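For reproducibility, we list the full input for the pyridoxal-5'-phosphate complex.
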Amino acid sequence: VNLDLDELDCHLQAAQDLILAYRRGLGDDPVLPGIAYHELARLLDEPLPIEGQGCEKALSAVKQLVIPGCTKVGHPRFLAWMNNSSCDAGILGEMINAGLAQVPFTFKGGKSATAIEHLTGRWFCQIFGLPEAATASFTGGGSLANLTALAVAREFQFPGAMQGGLPDGARTPRLYMSEQGHVSIERAAGLLGLGIRNIVRIATDASHRIDLQALEAAIRRDQAGGPGPFCVVAQAGSASVGAVDDIEALADLCADHQLWLHVDAAYGGAAILTERGKRLLAGIERADSITTDPHKWFSMPVEAGLVLFRNSNQLVETFLQSSCASYRGPMDEINLMNRGLQIAQAPKAFKVWFALKVHGLKKIRDCVEKDLGLAQHFAAEMAKRDGWELLNDVQLSTVCARFVPGRRDDGETDALQHRILERLEASGAALLSPVVVDGKVGIRVCFANHRTGQGDVEILVDALTRIAMEFCP
Ligand SMILES: Cc1ncc(COP(=O)(O)O)c(C=O)c1O
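The corresponding predicted structure, in tokenized form, follows.
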């Protein structure tokens, strides 16, 4: 199954032209193509190809059928989630990475790829101020990073759990996080046999930060009774409102009670590059583990998740307990398969390494700084508009707003937010997402897109206020 190398040259050129044309048009509206799923499924439908059709036909299918159905991820007003815009250098890195096709599950499967993974991981440990002994593991995303962190936390708080599960008669493990904690922590707790029900959700203050007194009271209550507290998960940029817990205070609390501190900075971690973020995330360097995703606010292509550990031995000791005997050897601790869940794997750090070399960290910091400013500006503008109220204290770059016509919040108000979003989406001007904050439906804008500028904020504010008025003139 090889292409003729001379023909490959032409196909690479055609693929390059196609990618370039697509990326040149990334800023054109609409953000979201109007096409419905059943229509796309019908257009793409064909029998399993037993005989190949050749590269030209496949490329033509991409042009005719795939590109018209592509969401313009990266459009300056694609602000729905946290994976809003990959930098072009990251994409170039990904293309080269695909071409080199390394399999660095052991050093021999990708020598330079392994070394790049370790180097890039060290860079991130440095960004977060972790000590020399710290280490990193790249994953497919934040969910896998959180799972990896909790697997290691479980092993070190319940020694032998990897081999024998939780011992019979052991106290029920208890993990604490605020009501803002991400669903991926629940999934991880479920998959690791800790149990979703054993997560204690702690109430938050008016800024959606964990209530420290309520947390300490819950820990003490459990210590006195049956369950066994083992871990606190701090939020450093919660998914719905971007709340950041008081990490310094949580680090003190975890030290006092000998609990594992994991910080979920999947989205908010990039804020550490800025002065404001450094203040908000103070104490993060004291965490036992940190999730932070290059594929979110660091502007790298998906999939690039990352988990950092203060103590590198803990990571390797957990995964080396179950490693492929045939690949074991003197380089065990550097082989990527011993540093996470996946055995076979593509290099995940390569695109991050490449893009950091191209742009440097300073450029990424400037984008994060810009997004923090845009969020404040957008929030201030919305607060001035009739009928709009803010649902969150804007700590990072996430703003949640709700339209309440005539200040009369009734049973229709939740549905109205969805209708505004639908109309905005249909206009092609922007893609935002719904959110529920303190039981109220709102509209969430996440400024984590390096292409978004001040002019886009004006367009967004105008579009939202115009659409809201169309519903309630
Ligand atoms: C705070 C937080 N943690 C974890 C995740 C999961 O990350 P991923 O979607 O990369 O699996 C997200 C995703 O939005 C998140 O916002």
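The chain is about 45% helix and 10% strand. The longest strand covers residues 228-235. Both points were considered when choosing residues for closer inspection.
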